[in-house]
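Re-running the complex after MR caught last week's input typo. The corrected sequence lines follow. Everything else is unchanged.
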Amino acid sequence: MSIRDQFEAGFVSKSDCLVKYQATAEPLSIEVHSSVQSLFGNAIRTCAMQMLEEFKVTTGALLVDDDGALDLVIRARIEAVLRSAGYLSQKRLFVDASSGISWQTGVSTIESEKNASLDGGIERPGRSLGADHASKQVRLYMPGDQPHFAINADFYGADILIFDLEDSVPLARKFEARILVRRFLENSFLFRKSERAVRINPLSTEESVHDIAEIVPAMPDIILLPKCESAMDVERLDTLLTANEEEYGLVPGSIRIMPIIESAKGVLAAYEIARASQRNSALCFGYEDFSRDIQSKPDIVKVAHVQDDGSQKVNIPSNPVSSIDSLLARQIIILASRAADIEPLDSSYSDIGNTEGLLNSCYEARALGFTGKSVIHPTQIPYVKKAFLPSDEEVQHAKAVIAAYEESLKAGKGAVAIDGQMIDIPVVEKARRIIEESMHAE
Amino acid sequence: MNIDGRLNKPFQDVFSDATQEQRGRKIKERAVQPSAISQRQKPDKLVASWDELFERLDIQDGATISFHHHLRNGDKIVNEVVARLASRGIMGLTLAPSALFSVHDALLPYIKDGVIAKIEGSMNGAIGAACSHGEIAQTCILRSHGGRQRAIREGDLPIDVAFIAAPCADSFGNANGLYGSSACGPLSYAKPDSEYAKKVVIITDNLVPYPCSSWSIRGGNVDYVLNVESIGDSSRIVSGTTQLTKSPTQLVIARLAARFIEAAGLMKDGFSFQAGAGGISLAATVFLAERMRNAGIKASFAHGGATKILVDLLEEGLLDSIIDLQSFDLDAVRSCAKNEKHIESDPFSSYGPHANCCVANMLDIALLGATEIDLNFNVNVVTHSDGILLHGIGGHSDASSGAGCTIITAPSFRKRIPIIKEEVTTITCPGELIDVVITERGIAINSRRDDLLWSAKKADLPCVDISQLMHDVYQITGVPEKPHFTDHPVALVEWRDGSLIDTIWQIEE
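Corrected-run output:
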């Protein structure tokens, strides 16, 4: 067996850094290059030294080539190279200041960051087990190994942010990606508005077990389970989650599951999948993999209608039903989720530049019964929101709420009710949001 | 304070007039001065070659030569003139361009050789960095567009020769930027140079029979006309982009800015605005237009640089006119040529600090950018947090001073560098002129504008205290170190009235 002595993680790209560790017997050396050297050169060096100390590294050469990465990213990259090199964090135990519970983590966590995120005053909506009424209209996928997507993601308007460890991360990068994702989850003050989800690798792979072990201590709100084909898959994930939650002292059942159905088998087992766990909060459809699995050729319709000279034989509708091959699958997923009292969520639309196609695809999804759609780029979010705009009735109700509220303000009254519903600040805010959305979806 | 033998007047306040007494000097515009031309004699201004031109101009060491920046990154004239003067052995030039672009990085060797000893005008990119590293022999001067024309008119910036690249000109020197293969739109920024420089040269690649129509530059101000093969690379003259930005953070800020403008009651019939050509400003204009359409509101005019976005609004009727100082794309160039509602302005009329025709003073909204903003709302647009000079002021301080509401849009941090700081590295515009700062993390409103704060809160806009915003960002980025400077001043920043508002110091290596 050959022993590696050179380890690297990250990229030299905006808001990221490339970290290399050369395992030698020489005394420790640190080299830092950065595009923000004069402003953060010392901070980066300090961060590197803390990490080396935490991992009790005393020899070798560490190189950080930085282009404005945040501290948490630099730490993630250094942690990745040191763990690849066989070092383990010496800081395994930490205490949850608010609950007094202490637990072991399998991984390294930074005390100060943990505390920052805990007293950062994160007010997440209180979740009761089972019923989940948080909006799931827009889910934004972000490649798990590219930090610059995540840094401001909370402001893009998505309901759920999905850190992807599956398809967007090449096998060789999965190790460092899950460390980066864990560190983002730990810095939960970055995500005050959107829920945080992780798409792990399929349970058929070894990677999925590592994903869960790394991610669960950082308490994501949701785990997305790709390539889900049977109720057993969900049950296995449920068991794994429970085991990890117990190990880290978390309330069992607090992490929800969204199975992604993207194969013929999965579609046929949709109802059992939907009912397989109390943790399930939605069924998601994944079109690309599904189409591959059933070997459909939806584009042949267009091709077949074009003659050799390039002219069209017959007029095909300018906006044909997109993904005609998946109509039944989509409907089954909708039926299964509704029957199991969870929400059906549609696949993403892959042609990022085509906003008209995106809107059409959203309207179709809504017409079929889906309550939301995933997006693969933040610029798609406003279009999904536009397609899933509040109905006229909702807008009328919202206007009535605002009117009643302003009336009560004028009259100097405190609380006011409309149709028996108490109007408090959150209700007013929601009403304003509905009106704002209905008028100005761009 | 005396730097390089120049007596600097300290900054008093934003609306004071430090050079008031100079206006009494009455420097005459060239065209109205008597010349040696007698009856029935036609002026002979055409020169056959660069060599003949330079022989007749007889430029000496230490002369000040000026240029405009309408050809933007496609300009060939600045580099050509400096190279030719260098080959004639001229040294110690002062360059007074209205702006420089990255194409002018080719001047760096002439800076090192001492051909160029000083720059009075905006310095971008590599030349700005060279200035920060103390590579320019003398202390440079940065002025806003309004401040530059003031300095020229009042004699603070005496120009020996103005070289004016003109896409369309006749043998008299009447010239415009509207037609020809190098069309660039208005020639606004060359107008003060043409009126007050000791000698004025028109360089054109499109010599048309007399008379050239229209006259952005009046032939009466011009001494020589030189016809050359090409004054610019037309593909790079209009470098503006009409594509909406794809940056999600920029889009969030732009949407928030449009929402704020409507909520604050600024979007009312007949309102006017100026928006820069940056990604956020362009997108904000698009989103604002959508709101205008929904609400059935029309604007009276847009000012500043013109883009396809504005031209479309003009043609749609959402905008009554465009007052244009420079075109950023070909649609704007075409519109400027054919649409009488697309007005070509000049820096005196647009930005003149004490002009009683100042367009900026008619603005309801100025939507501008910044490299840094501090807790007192002071703005920096020239240096970055690492202390390096990278941008010119443009019309920033002029528009801020005039507009009824000045809004700065910027991401709260770029890469890891916070934009909101305790203190800006360089002040280019005092905080009392900045009403609102809009970032993706919320809207900070100057306490002088309680009215705006009230409207924004009433509409549930995400208002934040500016120091809270700074600390929120510090939590993410960490607190940056301060750059280290030597005590050698490399550039002076003038306020619009010619007083010294700040100094840029050489970076410590």
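None of the earlier attempt is carried over here. The radius of gyration of chain B is 23 Å. Chain B touches chain A at residues 246, 248-249, 251-252, 255, 259, 287, 290-291, 294, 385-387, 411, 414-417, 440-441, 459-460, 475-478, 480-481, 483-484 (CB under 8 Å).
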